[in-house]
Write a structure and sequence with these properties.
Helicase, Ruva Protein, domain 3; single chain; DNA polymerase, domain 1; 5-stranded mixed β-barrel; NA-bd_OB-fold; four-way junction helicase activity; ATP binding; about 230 residues; OB fold (Dihydrolipoamide Acetyltransferase, E2P); DNA recombination; alpha+beta; helicase
Length: about 230
């Protein structure tokens, strides 16, 4: 299994790039969003990869974060969602956007991706609701960008009571982000009291955090200990 590649980008097209790794060229399919963040030909890139093996061909898919990669893998477990549709969703929403849409039950946002109909969007939200917390709680490098690949190459190295409680516990911060985080946790099945406490603690530590960041932090606090 090829889990990660780093090398120089040889060329790029509308849906894939070729990465030269020590003289071996790998064709890697990426979302529009990922493609927009990659450098031009000759630039150094580092991507997490997922290898999909079919009877008639093998395909590598590339991602700038582990969270994006895990969402891709989860999305493809949903009936009617293949790699092309998964990349379209990630290209339209990004990993944080997918997290937020599923947590909030916002299938309309998922439907906005190219090639996704309303029934498929609803199925995605329903099927992945219980699986979302694990990916949403991923932190550190999983939720953000990879280290500067050039340096690596050079070195070769919710409910009203809950919302009110959270607002009173978090004296500062983005009220809309807090409300969205509470709503997301409620949709994921957490009780108002537990959700409010976790979101308040997360918002207190990072007053300017957006909803996706608050959700990730709250899920870590709510995760079983030991």
């Amino acid at each position: 299994m090829i889990g990660r590649l780093r090398g120089r980008l040889d060329y790029r097209t509308a849906d894939h790039v070729l990465i030269d790794v020590n003289g071996v060229g790998y064709i890697v399919y990426v979302s529009e969003r990922t493609l927009a963040e990659l450098p031009g030909p000759g630039g150094v890139v580092s991507v997490y990869t997922d290898l999909v093996v079919r009877e008639d061909h093998w395909q590598l898919f590339g991602f700038l974060s582990l969270a994006e990669k895990e969402w891709h893998r989860l999305l493809m477990t949903v009936q009617g969602v293949g790699a092309k549709v998964s990349l379209a969703i990630l290209g339209a929403l990004g990993p944080d956007g997918v997290s937020r849409a599923i947590a909030l039950g916002d299938w309309a946002s998922v439907k906005a991706a190219k090639g996704v109909g309303p029934k498929t969007a609803q199925r995605i939200v329903l099927d992945l609701k219980d699986k979302a917390p694990a990916v949403m709680a991923m932190g550190g490098i999983a939720g953000g960008a990879l280290p500067d690949p050039a340096e690596v190459i050079e070195d070769e190295a919710a409910p009203t009571p809950a919302r009110a409680t959270a607002r009173s516990a978090a004296p500062s911060g983005n009220g809309a982000a807090v409300a969205d985080a509470l709503s997301a946790l409620a949709n994921l099945g957490y009780g108002p009291s537990d959700a409010a406490s976790a979101v308040a603690q997360a918002a207190g530590s990072a007053p300017e955090a957006d909803a996706a960041t608050l959700i990730r932090a709250a899920l870590k606090l709510l995760a079983p200990k030991g």
